[in-house]
Amino acid sequence: MNNLITVLYIIAFAMFIYGLMGLTGPKTAVRGNQIAAVGMVIAVVATLISIRDTNNWILIVAGLVVGVALGIPPARRTKMTAMPQLVALFNGVGGGTVALIAWAEFVDTNGFSHFNHGEQPTVHIIIGSLFAAIIGSISFWGSLIAFGKLQEILPGSPITLGKLQQPVNALLLIGAIAASVVIGISASGDGASQLWIIGVLVLAGVLGLMVVLPIGGADMPVVISLLNALTGLSAAAAGLALNNQAMIVAGMIVGASGTILTNLMAKAMNRSIPAIVAGGFGGAGVAAVAGDGEAKTAKSTNAADAAIQMAYANQVIVVPGYGMAVAQAQHAVKEMASMLEGKGVEVKYAIHPVAGRMPGHMNVLLAEAEVPYDALKEMDDINGEFGRTDVVLVIGANDVTNPAARNDPSSPIHGMPILNVDQAKSVIVLKRSMNSGFAGIENPLFYADTTSMLFGDAKKSVAAVTEELKAL
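Structure tokens predicted for NAD(P) transhydrogenase subunit beta (472 residues):
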């Protein structure tokens, strides 16, 4: 029986890894998800087989039924615009689950003694369990704040305690570690008070709130990725304590991939992860836009003029942003691009690593509209082409096209790599209004001599441009 369980776990691990490999591209992403899901089913079956008490089977199956009932409806009904919120919420549930497992085992087994078959728990069991409790609780409550900011239940701007922010965070972390030390000492002796484990969870939970609240909206994609990595690490630690290979491997895969993605996105923003955690730039003061002592004004255009510019261009680059997601304009953009290509215009898409509200947000939207993957160009690959591009169409992208990041040392986002759309011969920006982006920072691009603003809902604006193209 043990050999069968081991074989099933190995098959599940292989499917996890193979499924993750499929997520590297839109064409294989759906299949990758399906393979990983089958791997998880196999891991669950192996776990059920390893359990001798059928009463526990009933509880586990009941939990699976409840989880499926609560998880499938929002996953099916959530629009792509709200997918980042759903990712944050589901990730938080994972972290919260790990924290609850640690708490329940502690309460049920008198200080983790059951982890070691009734004997005094070993050091790795104690440390793994408490690490899982702390990190899982931080991930759960931090993910709830990320959800609230993305859903605009909470302000996207930083909420801080000022100079007290970092000292308070340090005290919370020290308190959680100190309570864990007390539990560790007691667990190797007469058993620790249940109040200490509750204290660990509460202190870690408040720390999760206090860490994410000061982070601005522009940093949310990095925060989601970081919290995902923390959830994976907490699951791996719990698996180590429970001697569950499935949790260890799955948690390490999630933790490693989340850490790598977080690091890549932080580099794309020219920011360090500690700097983001210490408080992001999102929601900082609005940068003034001035020229010769006078405020500049933006030029507006209409669908007919935009269509003429693009129809007679050699190359058009589309820069998608959250505005495209909000308007669900990706299908309209694909139709417009097909019309332009029919007229001999080359159309490409410039994808900034942190455009939207989560990693890969724009890639997912455009893949949904069946935009060819080869047409999606990463920032480093496309930036050299803007200087020889006739028209750039910016659809609701603010912060990732802001030239202040390159030209203004006083800007809060100075040094952040951006898409160099201001170097193109002509720029058309689709926006509902002149409001600043999620980072709360004014964009001088909107007032540039080569920029025209096409105001209105992005989907309707793109559809209007397409109609004008048909008439040309």
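The longest strand covers residues 315-320.
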